[in-house]
């Protein structure tokens, strides 16, 4: 469609990467291209190409990490190379959309962008505050110059797009006008739109050896921002109930620690499995009876657990363990799609799980409501419409 500016997304990973931000960006970029937007992406990898209407500019290697040193090296390299690509490619009138992988990408893109280009920050998580929460007060002081640089990029932007209300409140506190903040939650992968068949679910449960169990699952990244101690303690309280199993499916910084703790405490009701590919996610999520979503209180405004969308799409109740005043806790309580518990309330979590396992009518009601909420708020089509409207406003054509 003529007259539309180019939209240039910048993120460390893109197709064919299976990282969460790569999959989200691929969905959005290709969806906008179908709607007539000229879309380009700057990401790691080799060989510039065009795929499904999206022009992809590669910066070279650096998409996968080894340890912390490798991660830091990859981040520095991509920030440098992305800035060079932006300087070479972007023109006045373009809309540049940096994500937040790696940290400080938005500030780097804003600095490299030509005068007259418009910036829309797609905020998946909030750094350097996350690093400060990880490492404490002195890290917070050391990171203050980065925060000021980030804030300057945010306040000068045409728009900032956080994932939820708690993140939006923090963005506003940093001086961004509310009129320039648009909340657009992440969506469930499109493969989850069609529910998995009962036969496929039964086959996977049998393959797991859990056909007759009530499965309480945590699926996805087992990272440092997520709360697991309460889950372990609840499992200890449930260890003598042969009906109930806690299943962790994923990878991340806490995976080995959870496995080690389960062995040390002889918690045979905890099972761990590797992450599944996106093509199998519908069946994997559907095979659980209930799904856990967790968040440590220190990260309430810094991270939005996007796995919530996948759980709702699978049509399963949500059990949230995290800050009672967080928007996810409110969402779950107010919408009848599950239950919410404070970190440390292992007894409440245990009782909530027992209640769902013992009450099929309650389970069905919450599962049905979960799927309704997905269809109302978390589909890819809804997200695409929101992004299309936002880009039109930024471009001055909406």
Blueprint (SSEs and pairs):
Elements: E1 7-10, H1 20-34, E2 39-43, E3 49-51, E4 54-58, H2 68-89, E5 95-98, H3 105-112, E6 118-122, H4 129-135, H5 137-142, H6 144-156, E7 159-161, H7 165-173, H8 198-208, E8 214-221, H9 229-237, E9 244-251, H10 255-264, E10 270-274, H11 281-286, E11 290-294, H12 307-314, E12 318-321, H13 327-335, E13 338-341, H14 346-358, H15 360-377, H16 380-395
Parallel strand pairs: 1-2, 1-5, 2-4, 5-6, 6-7, 8-9, 8-11, 9-10, 11-12, 12-13
Antiparallel strand pairs: 3-4
Q: Classify the fold: give the CATH topology of the largest domain.
A: Rossmann fold
For the largest sheet, list the strands in their spatial order: 3-4-2-1-5-6-7
Give the termini distance in whole angstroms. Answer: 14 Å
Shape: globular
Helix residue percentage: 40-55%
Poorly predicted runs of 5 or more residues: none
| Beta-strand fraction estimate | 15-25%
Tell me the radius of gyration.
Answer: 21 Å
Q: Please give the CATH architecture of the largest domain.
A: 3-Layer(aba) Sandwich
Total count of helical runs of at least 4 residues: 16
The ordered H/E elements are EHEEEHEHEHHHEHHEHEHEHEHEHEHHH
User: Regarding CATH, which class of the largest domain?
Assistant: Alpha Beta
């Amino acid at each position: 469609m003529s007259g539309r500016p180019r939209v240039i997304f910048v993120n460390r990973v893109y197709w064919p990467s299976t990282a969460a931000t790569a999959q989200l960006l691929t969905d959005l970029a290709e969806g906008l291209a179908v709607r007539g937007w000229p879309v380009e992406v700057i990401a790691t990898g080799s060989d510039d190409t065009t795929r499904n209407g999206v022009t992809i500019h590669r910066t070279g290697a650096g998409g996968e990490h080894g340890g912390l040193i490798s991660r830091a090296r990859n981040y520095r390299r991509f920030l440098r190379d992305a800035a060079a690509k932006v300087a070479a490619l972007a023109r006045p009138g373009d809309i540049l959309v940096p994500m937040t992988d790696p940290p400080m990408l938005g500030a780097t893109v804003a600095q490299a962008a030509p005068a007259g280009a418009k910036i829309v920050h797609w905020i998946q998580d909030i750094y350097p505050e996350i690093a400060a929460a990880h490492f404490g007060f002195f890290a917070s002081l050391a990171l203050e110059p980065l925060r000021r640089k980030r804030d300057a990029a945010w306040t000068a932007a045409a728009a900032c797009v956080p994932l939820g209300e708690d993140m939006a409140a923090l963005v506003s506190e940093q001086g961004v006008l509310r009129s320039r903040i648009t909340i657009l939650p992440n969506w469930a992968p499109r493969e989850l739109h069609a529910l998995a068949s009962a036969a496929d679910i039964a086959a996977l449960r049998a393959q797991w050896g859990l056909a007759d169990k009530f499965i309480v699952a945590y699926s996805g990244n087992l990272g440092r921002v997520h709360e697991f101690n309460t889950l372990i303690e609840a499992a200890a309280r449930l260890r003598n109930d042969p009906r109930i199993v806690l299943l962790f499916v994923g990878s991340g910084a806490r995976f080995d620690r959870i496995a080690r703790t389960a062995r040390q405490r002889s918690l045979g009701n905890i099972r761990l499995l590797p992450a599944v590919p996106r093509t199998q996610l519908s069946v994997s999520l559907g095979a659980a009876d209930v799904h856990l979503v967790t968040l440590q209180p220190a990260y309430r405004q810094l991270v939005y657990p996007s796995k919530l969308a996948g759980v709702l799409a699978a049509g399963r109740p949500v059990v949230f363990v995290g800050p009672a005043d967080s928007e996810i806790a409110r969402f779950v309580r107010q919408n009848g799609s599950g239950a919410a518990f404070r970190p440390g309330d292992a007894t409440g979590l245990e009782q909530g799980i027992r209640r769902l396992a013992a009450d099929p009518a309650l389970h069905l009601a919450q599962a049905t409501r979960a799927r309704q909420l997905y269809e109302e708020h978390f589909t890819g089509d809804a997200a695409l419409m929101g992004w299309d409207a936002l880009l039109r406003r930024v471009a001055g054509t909406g």
